Amino acid sequence: MKPFIVKLTGITLAIAVIGWMVFSLAFPEYYLPVLPFLLLFFYLATLGIHAYQLKMAQKDIGKFTRSNMLITFFKLVLYSVVAVVYIAIDKENAIPFVICLMLLYLIYTFFEVTEITKITKSTDKK
Questions:
Q1: Which of 31, 69, 80, 118 is deepest in the core (most CB within 10 A)?
Q2: How far from each other are the two terminal CA atoms of the chain, in whole angstroms?
Q3: Which residue in 19, 15, 39 sits closest to 28, CA to CA?
Q4: What whole-number distance in Å separates Cα of residue 8 and Cα of residue 55?
Q5: Which residue has the higher pLDDT, 106 or 32?
Q6: Whole-number Å distance between alpha carbons of 125 and 11
């Protein structure tokens, strides 16, 4: 779990730096004050989901495979609820928020799938 946390922290810091550069240099009018909290939310959600999936993969790879789609569905529902709540509160910044949310979703999901695939492949070989 420690290597995952280090990589996740690195990715989150890289996104924070890139976001700061983009919103301070290129698009300052679209900066969202909620962006740091969104990063923290994705960081914690990815960490929690990965820890749960890791336990599932170590216990029973068959059960992990069956529950993986359900976990992905609930994760998507959770992120959609966050989007709907934010858009209901701040309609003016809906488009920049949705773009940021989708980019973060894609980045963190790609990272999570890559890492869990490495783990399940090593579990299959045992």
A1: 31
A2: 18
A3: 19
A4: 18
A5: 106
A6: 28
What does the DSSP assignment read for 78-116? HHHHHHHHHHHH-GGGHHHHHHHHHHHHHHHHHHHHHHH
Tokens of 92: 């003016």
Summary mean pLDDT of the chain = 87
83-94 pLDDT tens trace: 999 999 989 988
Token readout for 99 is 């773009």
Helix (H) or strand (E) holding 41: helix 35-59
Of residues 58 and 9, more confidently modeled? 9
The reported pTM is 0.84
Task: For residue 108, give both structure tokens.
Answer: 């963190």
